[in-house]
Amino acid sequence: MGKSIRNYLIFLGVIVLIMSLTVFSSSNRKRDWQWTFDPESKEPYGLYIFGKELKHFFTKKVIQESYYTPYEYLSVKEEKEEPYNYIFTVGSVDKVSLRKLLVEVERGSEVLFLNDFASLTDSLEIKTEDKYRAEDLQMQLNSPSFDKKVPIELKQTFVGINYFTDLDKNRDKALGYMYFYEEGKTKKELRKKINFVEVSHGKGKLYIHAGPPIAFTNYYLKKDPKVRDYAATILSYLPKDRPTVWFATPTQDRVSSSDALLFIMSQPQLRIAWWLLLLGFLLYLLFKGKRQQRIIPVIEKPKNTTVEFAQSVSSLYYQEGNATDMVQKKITYFLDQVRQRYYMDTQQINEDFAQKLYNKSGKDKTLVENIVQTIVHFRQTQQAQEETLTQMDKWIDEFWKP
Predict the structure, then answer these.
(1) N or C: which end of the chain has fewer CB within 10 A?
(2) Distance between CA 47 and CA 217 in Å, rounded?
(3) Residues 21, 166: Cα–Cα separation, whole Å
(4) 108 — phi, psi (to 5°)?
């Protein structure tokens, strides 16, 4: 390794060390207020506390499923098994999984949706509406045990909320409402909309809470006892004595959630180290490319094989004994070389041709004239003696010498 490259790597290592110490020693880490609803996140809008409490709420096992889709999970579940509870907290359910899930509900299982329920609207013929701005949001359950209005403090001005507009009276039941203010024609008007419904399906039921699941996040479960009671009341609609499966990550993320690169990019310190590594690698290639000249291949000069050709022709002559034919071949080869090297027309062999050949080749003028005169004479007589062949061979050999 060259001295310059070694110094560069040392310099890069010092920079990485300083930046790493700065990042890891930072104690004033800002809170992330984005709506992630990540089951492992302890940020305000994560679901870490919800996941911990879920395991104590139900008497039987609680499975946090983050790898398989509902379709894959239900495909390996035996039909004779007892009914289950299923909870969804983030992301929509794909159509294939939804069909499989509805079959499971028909057998007696129950499902709680706390997420985007758009995939249900067509299958269950549910009508909904959206609002992208709400003020003074409050939630209330239609339950004798808990009918208080629970205020939800919104950190964002524009919040997408969903609610139900039309229910099937023979099948559906309103279990909860949301209250919010919106701009009216003359003043802000209080709206009351259904945000929690029960849908009967076969032997089972679906409980759909219009998302997103703000009330179930770390911030609200830890801050407000009323919100905790609100969340617990919603969970109480599911039978406590059943196994419960919690699908905690979006369907599209389940296959790749264990990917190492995704984990690196999800951690601020590892993400910075990763980009520094890539930057250092690119700089290394840049500096190395400038200091290392590309190898230039050695191209050998074309070898002059005129002598070998003449020797082959001579050998052929001595074997065949036909001087006329040999002279014809030597003249043909000579003129072909003249065309290729000097780009001359060889149709008319005369004094003008001799002068042009002399000018382009730079050979002895007498030598050029002897060759041209011999060619002209041969074309007129079409006869050649051994002496002519020998002399022609000598002149051509001398002409092509470097």
Answers:
(1) C
(2) 5
(3) 57
(4) 125, -5
189 pLDDT band, cuts 50/70/90, is confident
Number of domains in the chain: 3
CB atoms near residue 308 (< 10 Å):
10
Same domain flag for 314 and 329: yes
Q: Which two tokens stand for residue 73?
A: 């999970």
Degrees to nearest 5, angle at CA 221 with 34 and 147: 120
Chain-centroid distance, C-alpha 161: 32
Whether residue 35 lies inside any domain: the answer is no
* Packed helices 48-57 and 225-235: angle between N→C axes, nearest 10 degrees: 50
Considering the domain architecture, whether residues 253 and 384 belong to the same structural domain is answered as no
SS3 of residue 210 by DSSP: coil
Does residue 38 lie within any of the structural domains? no
Q: Are residues 124 and 86 in the same domain?
A: yes
Residues 102, 201: contact at Cβ < 8 Å?
A: yes
Which of these, 78, 114, 62, lies nearest to 93 by C-alpha position? 114
Rounded distance between C-alpha atoms, residue 149 and residue 226, angstroms: 9
Q: How far apart are CA 247 and CA 209, in angstroms?
A: 15
- In this structure, the answer to whether residues 251 and 156 fall within a common structural domain is yes
CATH code, domain carrying 143: 3.40.50
pLDDT in tens, 20-29: 666 555 445 5
Domain of residue 63 covers 48-258
What tens digit of pLDDT does each residue of 95-137 get? Answer: 888 999 999 999 999 999 987 677 788 888 888 888 776 678 8
Which residue is associated with the tokens 């264990």? 258
The answer to whether the predicted template modeling score (pTM) of the entire model surpasses 0.70 is no
Please state, in angstroms and as integers, the Cα–Cα distance from residue 57 to each residue in 40, 51, 87, 175, following that order.
18, 10, 13, 20
At residue 218, the pLDDT reads: 93
Would you call 326 exposed, middle or buried from its count of C-beta atoms within 10 A (0-12, 13-18, 19+)? buried
First to last CA, the chain: 47
Handedness of CA 264, 270, 272, 275 (dihedral sign): negative
| Ordered DSSP codes for 259-307 | -HHHHHHHSHHHHHHHHHHHHHHHHHHHHHHHHSPPPPPPPPPPP--HH
Instruction: Tell which residue, 102, 101, 3, 29, has the closest CA to residue 267.
Output: 29
